[in-house]
Design brief:
Blueprint lengths: L6 H15 L1 H4 L10 E8 L10 E6 L10 H13 L4 E5 L11 H8 L7 E5 L2 H17 L3 E2 L3 E9 L2 E10 L9 H7 L6 E5 L5 H7 L4 E4 L28 E5 L2 E5 L17 E8 L1 H25 L5 H7 L2 H50 L1
Parallel strand pairs: 1-12, 2-3, 3-4, 4-5, 7-8, 8-9, 9-11
Antiparallel strand pairs: 2-12, 6-7, 10-11
Length: about 375
């Protein structure tokens, strides 16, 4: 497929312009953070050096700036991102929908506001090509964002055993046949864990087959803009997001995560599918094992102290485990039962007293019989 906009998109562009004019009457214009899902995803990555433990990657996908997502909304989203103090920001495509010229300056200005410790990386989506891939790439570059479409970016840190690496690869739009996994595999270093950024989530089948990637981060689907309650999936699946439309999946040895994205398609409707900001925390198995062992050690130490120094519960122990109101209520209920209990016992005693003469008589007869026998 070429970079030219399909005929259907030209019609959608006209619809977008018309809807933009009436947007203020249709949707609230003030940014409201509560309308967004901030999703945290922990991913344990094999061979991840401890120096990268809890490494934080914030993902934004499918901005579609100019439709539901206004520049004011994007500013609010970037503020949320910056408050996370991310090590890296990953942008996974479709920065505009159909009209770039109306929002180009705002897009560059907002993306320039991202604050990150290491790097902001991006790949392109199908809409970016339809609007002009070169123009989008220039906007990203001006905003200080590195395009890793069909490329690799390596992050290095000084670890205990020397320099440690984390490789971030990316592919261009699969829907437009722009992806080039062969080029990526030639560029990616042999050692060090790797993460894939791919706009279309169904690229996961290809990425996982290489055996080189621990995680793929994607968007494209918008979560279908409708998630079935209770099932956390959608029936509205577009091309290249039919297998992995929303959320987390295990694809071979690789984790695939598909964001619900920030924007929408032609229409702004989202049902049970809030726009999403995703926070990935990378976990080192080595550190996780140490943490687990330390927790077990602390539990054992606590039990040891409990057995050796606290043979009897203290007043604080009692206060912690018992509620004085509950105790009072329990005592009162028992007190009320005492008269009934005593009455029952008295009746039992009377019955036993009445039985005494009969018992004595039986015992007397038994003794007499024994004497006769002897």
């Amino acid at each position: 497929m070429s970079n030219e906009k399909p005929i259907g998109l030209i019609a959608r562009q006209k619809i977008q312009k018309g809807m933009t004019i009436t947007r203020e009457k249709i949707i609230p214009m003030e940014f409201d953070e509560s309308r967004y899902d901030i999703v945290e995803v922990n991913v344990e990555i094999k061979d991840l050096d401890p120096v990268f433990h809890d490494y934080k990657i914030v993902n934004l996908s499918d901005l579609h700036l100019g439709q539901w997502l206004t520049p004011e909304y994007l500013e609010g989203v970037i503020d949320i991102v910056n408050r996370q103090e991310p090590d890296m920001v990953a942008l996974t495509g479709d920065y505009v929908s159909y009209v770039l010229e109306d929002v180009a300056e705002d897009l560059e200005r907002c993306l320039s506001m991202i604050e990150v410790k290491d790097a902001s990386l991006a790949v392109l989506g199908n809409h970016d090509h339809w609007n002009g891939a070169d123009e989008i790439r220039q906007i990203l570059k001006n905003a200080g964002i590195i395009d890793v479409s069909n490329d690799v970016y390596s992050i290095s840190k000084d670890g205990e055993k020397g320099v440690a690496y984390l490789h971030i690869a990316g592919v261009d739009s699969m829907k437009l046949n722009k992806e080039d996994i062969d080029a990526v595999m030639l560029k990616i270093p042999e050692h060090g864990p790797a993460i894939m950024l791919a706009h279309e989530p169904d690229f996961a089948d290809i990425a996982a087959t290489t055996g080189r990637f621990a995680l793929q981060i994607s968007g494209h689907s918008h979560g279908g803009q409708f998630i079935i309650p209770g099932l956390n999936t959608t029936i509205l699946r577009s091309a290249c997001s039919r297998k992995y439309p929303v959320g987390e999946y295990q694809v071979g040895d690789m984790v695939q995560y598909t964001s619900k994205g920030l924007g929408t398609n032609v229409f702004w409707l989202r049902i049970n599918c809030a726009p999403e900001i995703t926070i990935f925390k990378l976990k080192s198995p080595e550190v996780e094992e140490k943490i687990g062992n330390e927790e077990i050690k602390n539990i054992n130490q606590t039990l040891s102290v409990s057995h050796s120094k606290k043979m009897f519960p203290t007043r604080d122990d009692v206060d912690n485990f018992l509620n004085i109101d509950d105790i009072s209520e329990f005592i009162e209920s028992k007190r009320k039962r005492i008269p009934v209990y005593m009455e029952n016992k008295t009746d039992n005693i009377k019955e036993n007293i009445n039985e005494i003469p009969k018992i004595i008589e039986n015992k007397t007869e038994e003794i007499k019989n024994n004497l006769k026998f002897n």
